[in-house]
Amino acid sequence: MSVEVMNRYDATVRLRARLGDEDAVIGGIGNTNFDLWAAGPRNLNFYMLGSMGLAVPIALGVALAQPERRVIALEGDGSILMQLGCLSTLAKLAPGNLGTVIMDNGCYQITGSQPTGTAFGTDIEAVANACGLEHSATVATETALDAALDRFWQIAAPWVIVVKIDGEPPRGTTERDPLRIRMRFMDALNLA
Ligand SMILES: Cc1ncc(C[n+]2csc(CCOP(=O)(O)OP(=O)(O)O)c2C)c(N)n1
Known about the structure:
alpha/beta, Rossmann fold, six-stranded parallel β-sheet, two-stranded antiparallel ribbon, 8 strands, globular, binds thiamine diphosphate
């Protein structure tokens, strides 16, 4: 049986095309980060290098501090599984300016493709729902991704989209200069 999936880089490019100039994106560790970089660096992109599971917590901080700004958290399935509690916090604090996109390839690809829980039936959308995040979807095609983004982009509540992706390697490698990444991002947020 063939299962329909998207390509992470293609999905990232689609998401990037939708961003406004003032929108911030937090890329979690892993190949999600690398494809965010490959899709075209932006000053308002923050690239988390080093620790898993921090895309949503960092994005939540930015979203709460700057409620007028749209913030997108991009995370891998392995990373969100390491930090599931953030979904509960997200539902509790309910910022109206934060969307989360999970790139679900069923593995910890960047460290050797060891399988994650989603390869054995863990359903991240169901977890998000159970945490109280009712605006959640799982998509596996470009049409479905676009439809979910159309639906969620305007709502004033946190949302989660799980994108089922293939095992293709990323198209680039994020520049490994954490200080520069941090300063550039803070400057773009008018915090430097
Ligand atoms: C707390 C922590 N544990 C382990 C690692 C090592 N590590 C870095 S990325 C990664 C896998 C990330 O998997 P996922 O989020 O699914 O992204 P993918 O690599 O599939 O794009 C692991 C295990 C780490 N950096 N931090």
